[in-house]
Amino acid sequence: MSILFKGRVQGAQISQVSTSQRFLMFFVSHFRQALGSLGELWRAKAASLMTIGVLGLSITLPSTLYVMVKNAENVSSGWEEAAQISLFLKEDVSQGDIDQLLKRIQLWPEIDAINFISASQALDEFKQLSGFGEAIAYLDQNPLPNVILVTPTNRHASPVAARVLLDKLRDEREVDLGKLDIEWLERLHALLNVVKDLVTVVALLLFLAVVLIIGNTIRLNILSKKDEILVMKLVGATDAFIQRPFMYTGFWYGFLGGILAWIAVILLLWWMSSSINTVSQLYQKSFDLTGASISTFLWMLGVSVFLGLAGSLLSVRRHVREIEPK
Predict the structure, then answer these.
(1) Distance (Å, whole) CA 90 – CA 95
(2) What residues contact 220, with CB distance under 8 A and at least 6 apart?
(3) Using CA atoms, how far apart are residues 10 and 31, in angstroms rounded to an integer?
(4) What are the CB-based long-range contacts (under 8 Å, 24+) for 175-178?
(5) What is the reported pLDDT for 5?
(6) Residue pair 303/59 in contact by the 8 Å Cβ criterion
(7) What pLDDT score was predicted for residue 99?
(8) What per-residue confidence (pLDDT) applies to 49?
(9) What is the reported pTM?
(10) Rounded-to-integer distance, Cα 47 and Cα 105, Å
């Protein structure tokens, strides 16, 4: 008889031993049933590999998209110019007033860093970059104003918070004009939010498909052992005891599928790294894909095991109860 019948015989023997031995035999019984379920998967390698492959690849897509979104957020958080405020000061402001303004706004909790660019520095930089150095030398006076570049903290770098900070800075008496590319920030955050929602929808649909596929696989497995289950119930086995090996089967599907998904994510990130490096070189930025960490692996493995157990539970609760001796 299979693992189900053997487990039932062991269960009858446990009632004759002490409490400590019962406690030990409980875990031994679970361990044997887990190994028995794994052995059954090994004996049906082709069907098991197909189910594990479907589960693993279904988790790979949302996991890869999630990692890419996280990397995009890390890159965007490093673009200080995306949330940088430019303050153009009035022409009649003295250097003493400018120093007082710098000290005053430096103490604001919304501001991470400030950079003062004097009118003369701005003019020198313009001469070097524009190529009109000789023509600019004929100007009677410097047409460029003093500028303060304000970098908000990460908490105040969102479009709404940056707009509030910009309005607050404009109220300073030394400031003539404040500028912030709000539309760029709004587009950036809106795009990331759309991608996050897309990842969530795709993940939910794929996870639902995985649960249904595993549930149908376990259902077929239960029906193939209908006669064995009938014998087990005739000798007094409970539904919970009969369901346990099938639950372990779902666990193994999820566990092995999670490992497969993690390997697939690593391979995808490795394959995409060359393209990412090409793009980063065009923008003169150093960027490395991250995400294939132990925490990500544990998260993927936990989700995969949960889906495997959910699919198993969906089938065993219904179909095992329907099998009753007449």
Answers:
(1) 11
(2) none
(3) 13
(4) 175/87, 175/88, 175/89, 175/90, 175/101, 176/88, 176/89, 176/90, 176/91, 176/145, 177/87, 177/88, 178/85, 178/86, 178/87, 178/88
(5) 44
(6) yes
(7) 86
(8) 86
(9) 0.59
(10) 67
Predicted pLDDT at 34 = 76
Stretch (H or E) spanning 160:
helix 159-170
Spatial distance between the Cα atoms of 289 and 270, rounded to a whole number of angstroms = 9
Residue 113 Cα distances to 26, 89, 148, 153, 251, angstroms? 62, 18, 10, 8, 51
pLDDT for position 314: 84
- DSSP characters over 241-264: HHHHHHHHHHHHHHHHHHHHHHHH
d(CA 149, CA 94): 18
CA dist 140 → 92, 127, 137 (Å)? 17, 15, 8
What pLDDT is recorded for position 132? 56
Give the pLDDT score at 185.
64
Q: Cα torsion for 55, 58, 64, 67, to the nearest 10°?
A: -70
User: In which residue ranges of the chain is pLDDT below 50?
Assistant: 1, 3-15, 80-81
* H helix or E strand, kind and range, residue 35: helix 19-43
Rounded CA-CA distance 238/232 in Å is 8
Q: Where are the beta strands (DSSP E) in 145-218?
A: 147-152, 175-179
**Residue holding tokens 């004996």?**
43
Residue 86 in 3-state DSSP?
A: strand
